[in-house]
UniProtKB/TrEMBL annotation:
InterPro entries: 3-OHacyl-CoA_DH, 3-OHacyl-CoA_DH_CS, 3-OHacyl-CoA_DH_NAD-bd, 3HC_DH_C, 6-PGluconate_DH-like_C_sf, 6PGD_dom2, NAD(P)-bd_dom_sf
3-hydroxyacyl-CoA dehydrogenase NAD binding domain mapped to chain residues: 5-162
Site residues, Important for catalytic activity: 121
Source taxonomy: Bacteria, Pseudomonadati, Pseudomonadota, Alphaproteobacteria, Rhodobacterales
TM segment ranges: none
UniProt protein name: 3-hydroxybutyryl-CoA dehydrogenase
Amino acid sequence: MRRYVVLLGAGVMGQGLARHFHRAGFQVAVVDPNAEALEKLQKSLPELTIAQDLAALSANWASADLVIEAVPEILSLKTELLARAEAFFSAQVLIASNTSGLTTADLCRNMRHPERLAIAHFFNPADVIPVVELVASAQMPRERLEQLTELLRGSGKEPAVLHREVPGFVANRIQHAMMRECLHLLDQGVADAETIDSIVRWSLGVRLAFTGPFGQRDLNGLDTHLNIAGYLYPDLSAAQTPSATLQAKVAEGALGRKSGAGFYAWDQATQARAQAAEAALDALILQESQGASSAAQQGGQN
């Protein structure tokens, strides 16, 4: 049976999600007031249904399996859109927000049926990174969360259900803790951005991809970690405000890839390297998932 998903937003995340669900065999609709963004997306995925407003969708979409909100991180914009989604979609339709850090309590503020809302935090590029952090609203029954989990798993994602809600969930907390120290090292003149990137990529990065932080600490030895933590923690950054370097770059419009400059100049060569890295990441994830699937099948036969 073909499944239906509606994506609210045709930005970077909406585009990635459209590619992911289309590749997984879902019927996909994308809703965004920006006609140019919709047309650009449909050129690469002609089978998509596109609309500038929910009201422009045909009635059969009102009973879609899943609706995912993927608009900018502005609470008022998200709550308004979620309220409109509730008015259009039938009561059994699951609604997920792709927020990176807002709470379910805030998102449910204008909803009549908060029991169908969960946060589904996908990662960019959304058609490549497997994990999705899931946070159920306080009103969502366990069976509805399980329904959402199985739907996402069926699309090829790896749902990770959090036991309780915290700002930034898990990945963003870890990512920002790491970036706080990276920016601190940059601000202190310890190393430049390219050197820090190289060290992280070819030491922590390659190890963590295969073991995770706790698995790596077990391999290293918890006693070794404790001994280093005792003398290193007091010297780590504990800044409570964003880095001055980061604030300056944003103020001058150097936003990264999307503006053409950030910590790097995003010329054709840099773009080509990034695209090659994304393709390599996609291939690696596919290889690992196939290996895990094969190992599970062999284990089941033993």
